[in-house]
Amino acid sequence: GLWTDDTIMTLLLLESLLKKGGFDANHQLTLYQRWFDEGYMSPTGNCDDIGKTCLKSINRFEKTGGLKSDIATELDNGSLMRIAAVVLAQPKLNLENLQELASQCSYVTHGSKLAADCCRYYSTLIYKALYGASKSELFDYQLDQSYSQSLREIINTKKYQTTVPERGIGGHVLEGLI
User: Fold this and answer.
1) What is the pLDDT of residues 121-153, one digit of tens each?
2) How far apart are alpha carbons 162 and 178 in whole angstroms?
């Protein structure tokens, strides 16, 4: 009956976006650090689980005050798992600003452009669904050149219908998205 670390980080991101009225990397990381150190928002009062990439970001913030990851190889799905908070907290933003906010929130913990692009795309789908887009409109949405080539190839050619691994969903951001 407990919720996951991804759920807790979604709640923390949502809290930060609502309290600050938008993006504030320092506030986000302060909340993530508080959860890790004190169990804030955890149903057990402890940080019972945390992804390696998110932990690295909290440690970087504690030691250097760094507000953005610059490690381009961080391809796990942690930032993707919490990105729905962006749409929930800022539903009246226009789509372009919402996508930028999703990208900024991803880069707080994940330095990969692919992770940020997956967050932009997923937040777009949530936003469009929230405002009444049909299932076919969501699946027909094409990504432009600003997105990573690997993501464009999967989404624009509908390869996601055949790329889900037989073993189930793994920790890679593309597996988490598709």
Assistant:
1) 999 999 999 999 999 999 898 999 999 998 999
2) 10
